[in-house]
Write a structure and sequence with these properties.
By secondary structure, this protein is mainly α. It contains eight helices and five strands; from the N terminus they run αααααααββαβββ. About 65% of the residues lie in helices and about 10% in strands.
Length: about 300
């Protein structure tokens, strides 16, 4: 891993550590406030803040584990733990949203008494906490899916705090305690689509899909169209984790081409046009037996699995 990656991981770890300390401290305050005021919306916001704490803790753990070097058992190291953490965070958010919606349905029949002033004060403090946490995480969310997941959870919680504040004011002015349940439902429903997107991104990486924004036909066309290249097969592009993209391919060179010079030229092409730097190219005088198989793993005549 380059020094750039190491510095980025260090920055992310520091941001996560600060956000975790801040969020965990306020979580205790919000739970006490929710129980005291009797507000489901506030407890719903506290539940989301709990997922924030868990998400930030897992994200910090993922950064630290991801720094471990590769070994004979894990030749790519532990960097993909970041994606596992992001997927876990998404599943956790789904569970919390489901609980909030269930509790809201249960409360509709018997709305409890809600202390709007206490609800307002705690929610306002939560809003400030979320704003600070988002500020801490904003610098790393574009470079790490793991930090992005934590940022999304804090963002959802921030909107939850805004909703709780609005609900508290409305209850204070009108006495409509059912607004508390309505706000809780809105928070649960708002977070679901964003959680689905985060889970989708995580699963895409785990399935070793082509990274977003990168066209496999365009890469294949650039390689095949380079002077001295007769054909290209066994082309695979995937992400190990956020920002770490790998490519492998078999390239058949033309008779007049110099294999070593062609290899250097193709690596330069991939770096300049597609920002691909971790590339493994096999240059062949003629297409190997895998040329007939496209993006798959083949079967030998004996029925055993062999890599394509």
């Amino acid at each position: 891993m380059s020094d750039t990656h190491n510095h980025g991981a260090g920055a992310s770890a520091l941001q996560l550590k600060k956000a975790l300390a801040l969020t965990a401290t306020f979580l205790v305050v919000e739970v006490i406030g929710g129980l005291w005021s009797g507000s489901l919306a506030l407890l719903s916001d506290a539940a989301h803040m709990l997922t924030d704490v868990v998400a930030l803790a897992i994200a910090l753990l993922a950064v630290r584990i991801g720094r471990r070097p590769a070994d004979d058992r894990r030749t790519f190291g532990y960097a993909r733990f970041e994606i596992l953490a992001a997927a876990f965070n998404a599943l956790l958010l789904f569970a919390v949203a489901g609980y909030v919606l269930y509790e809201a349905w249960r409360r509709l029949s018997e709305p409890p008494e809600v202390q709007s002033v206490a609800m307002l004060v705690v929610a306002a403090a939560g809003l400030v906490t979320n704003l600070v946490s988002m500020r801490l995480l904003s610098g790393g969310k574009e470079h790490s899916l793991n930090v992005k997941g934590a940022y999304l959870e804090v963002w959802a919680d921030l909107l939850g705090s805004v909703s709780v504040i609005a609900g508290a004011v409305l209850i204070w002015l009108t006495g409509w305690v059912w607004v508390d349940t309505l706000v809780a439902v809105a928070i649960g429903l708002w977070v679901l689509p964003r959680t689905w997107l985060l889970l989708g991104e995580s699963v895409h990486v785990l399935l070793e899909g082509v990274p977003r924004g990168l066209s496999l036909p365009a890469v294949r066309g650039a390689l095949a169209g380079h002077p001295g290249v007769a054909s290209v097969h066994e082309l695979h592009v995937w992400s190990l984790t956020s920002g770490q993209i790998s490519l492998t391919a078999h390239v058949v060179h033309a008779p007049e081409a110099q294999p070593q010079a062609l290899l250097v030229a193709l690596r330069g092409l991939l770096a300049q046009r597609f920002d691909l730097h971790h590339t493994t190219l096999q240059v062949e005088a003629q297409a190997c037996e895998l040329a007939g198989e496209v993006h798959s793993f083949g079967w030998t005549a004996a029925g055993s699995r062999r890599a394509a």
